Sequence to fold (836 residues):
Amino acid sequence: MTRIGAVFLVLSIVFFAIWADVNYHLHQLLGSLGKLGIMGIVSVVVIALGQRLERKNASLLVYGRTLMAAGLAGLYFTFYAAYYIQDLAVIHSPIVAGFLLLLWSVYVFFIAEKKKSQTLSLFAITLAYISSAINPVGEFTMAADLLLATTAVIFLLRNGWAALSYFSLLGTYLVLLRRLVVDENGELVLDTSRTLSFWPHATYLIGAWFIFTGAVLLSTASGFRGGKRFAFLTLNNGGLAGLLALTAYIAGYGYGPTGWTVLATGGLLLVTSRLVAWGRTEADASEVSSAYLAQGLALLTGGIMMVYTGISRGVLLGLETFFLGAAGAFSRSVILIAAAYVAAFFTTLFLIWEIAMNAHHPWLLGVGGAAVMLLNAWWARRDVRHTPEERQKIVLSSSYYCALALGLIFTTMSTDLSDDMLPPALALTGLALTFSIYLFPLYELPPIAQTFLVAAQALVLFPADTGETRSRWSTALVAIVTLLAVTWWSRQRVTRCGPWITALNFVYALALVGLTYHAVRPSADSQTWMISASLLSVAFLIWGAFTRVWPLAAMGQVFLGVALYHFFLPPGGWDVSPFPWTWWAMAVPIAVVFATGRAIHEWLRVFPEITGEWRDNLRGLAYFYQGLTLALVVHWINVFIPAPDQISTFLFLGTLLLIWNVCRESIFGIRCSFVLSALGLLVYLQHFNTQEQLFMATFVNALAVIAFLAQPGLLRRGGKILVTELESWFLILFSVVFGWLFVSAWVSTRIHPNYLTMGWALYALFLFFLGLLVSERRQRWCGLFILVAAILRVAFYDIWGFSNGYRVLTFIVLTIITLGLGFIYARFADRLKMWL
Fold:
């Protein structure tokens, strides 16, 4: 929290300066010196307070020093603002300002050394480099920066202040970088026409490198061991190489001399590597020597790339890759192996450039370079060859070389082959590389080679708009190779296996779907395509089931989805009239979906060993297809059967489906029958108050209503109801309400509205006896309820609106019904209690 507060204090001073810069009234009141004086006084007070707290109480040592560092930073910014901020500027010479800031940093260094405080030294070094950076480049500033670097290294050797050395290293190189790429206007520029002397900057860089290399080789501080030392030397070497090359480039030397500069830097690091190996005896001497060796080899490779051009560059790097790879494999030297990686990458890069852009000997360069990479991949597996885990062991270096080899082959083929020849050539090459596992146990190659087949599929499925028409044989050949590959990967046991094969098979199966679409769709009209897609889904399912390539069986259902899309949404929309599909064409998807669901059920019956979650998932899938079949049948009925006849169709089908599934004790099928019956009720309700009501009150529909009312009794099997109590209640209530509405419509349209109450009473009597017949007490209750409704209608409507004749007739009927039911309950009370 103290450090956060210190940062906030410095920021407060900074923002005061910015505010004072733009506030006119404050400027008029205080002037530049007054505002700078306030900033300076605050900083001095904070410094004094920090020193007092540090001396007064040992427990406040860190707090006091942190506070003092904040005050020193604030005072430094006050000096900085006196030159840099326009309205506060009282110093107008950058040399004077830089010298003053540098003196202040030296003073802070002196305090830091006296108090042995690395925190103060970090403030000092940061402030010193900022003061140096604001000055134009010159001998004074460069000498000052090297002096700061030497001071930081001395503090490292004397006090073990590793963080200070890191800050100094970054400051030394970043200050020069700013001068190289930022002009006098503060804009980023890499203009080679500027007048820039190479050797003064090179001398500065080499001097800084030697200073910091001395820190690497001489320091024994505990905070400068292991990874920290390696990170420091890497930053030092990278700063030298990068800035030296940048300086040569900006000085106008061109790519050739700049490349030789990089080569010379690499040679310097190689020499340093040997000197470290001869002169150091510490435990990490070999690691330090190896680090210089690896980075020197990397710079040599970069220098070759910059000095040589064209085929010579790629071939030279290829030879370097070959020898480095072989040497690294047999010597197991990490340095040689890493150098081979770098050389292989740039070999591939430049050979690809020559093949793709200049078309120089594409097959020779591509195949030759690929052969070198595959040899390196073979050598990289030397340590795991003939071991038990050889097949499943992933060797990243071997995978790396295989990927580079395939990149060269792909570039060669894409450069020299036509758009029509490229996809099948890629597919066959990928297949050949995959099957090469039977000749050479390079287990990383088959999985990586699948990128060729994927590329071939992508070229066919997403062709570029070049004006060239791709022939059918090209698409067919890619599809055949894909089918062979997806079947082989699912059954092979010769190369590496794992969950990734399932994902690969899904990709191939989806690609095969796309390829089949491209082969079949152009030559088929819409209805033929709907039928073909349905049958193709069956073909994919059969092939996948018998070869156990389940991704293929699953992805084949994409065709079924396409067929269903056309089934429900033909050209013109779902409600187009007349409907474009024939009844038999629409029957094909229905048969396919139903057969698929039944096949899954049959599969589960034949293979009882499928248990647990897999069995539940497959059963759920089968139910999904059955439900989908129901939706297809409903749409088929809506399209081809007139609305008045749809009621009886839905009710009869629902009743037949209910009987079939009650016999099989299929709860899912029973619930599907409920859907059909509910749709019949829904269709009727849609036309209940329209002119079509008369046409719906037909004898066939009356029989359908009776069948619907019989469903609650048909639902029983062996004295038990196969669905829940709530579902059976809904079935009874819906069927009774439907019958009530139908009777009302029949009486009102075919007889006379005045007989409506009588019709209700007769319907109530029918329900009562139907309940007795099928042993369903709840239907009898519904009959009694409707009878009560009829009685209430008489009391509240008929008696006031009817003529005397209708009243008498109505009362006679109601009398007979009520007395008859009373007699029955009185006579057969005990037996009725026994009947469910």
Notes: The mean pLDDT is 75. The two ends are 81 Å apart (CA to CA). The beta strands are 716-717, 720-721. The longest strand covers residues 716-717.
